[in-house]
Amino acid sequence: xxxxxxxxxxxxxxxxxxxxxxxxxxxxxxxxxxxxxxxxxxxxxxxxxxxxxxxxxxxxxxxxxxxxxxxxxxxxxxxxxxxxxxxxxxxxxxxxxxxxxxxxxxxxxxxxxxxxxxxxxxxxxxxxxxxxxxx
Length: 135
Prior knowledge:
Elements: E1 6-9, H1 20-26, E2 30-43, E3 48-52, E4 59-66, H2 72-80, E5 93-102, E6 107-115, E7 123-124, H3 131-134
Antiparallel strand pairs: 1-4, 2-3, 2-4, 2-5, 2-7, 5-6
Helix pairs in contact: 1-2
């Protein structure tokens, strides 16, 4: 699997609200900049979920972080997000590569956790901002 050195965070992985069970791994990430991806953001109750749509006019805003060279942080985050690389269809989220546009205009390929369930009955967050993360 191709690796990226970046992770796009749009919700509960944000350092200021990360749950204690993942906070240590999140603290190892280094902030790069604010940015957005194309898609739709949903309120799933205790956390948000994104559905990526490259052709969408809707932007989901978040932050890009540089991953440490040691893979333990991303493996810990995978486990927290219930992403199982060997069983992606059984995963709550899938870790995918997506193009993120930074506020500077620079574009980077970044990992993002995309919700793997049906979003149709969920509440769409029209602003594209998960307020608990980026308030």
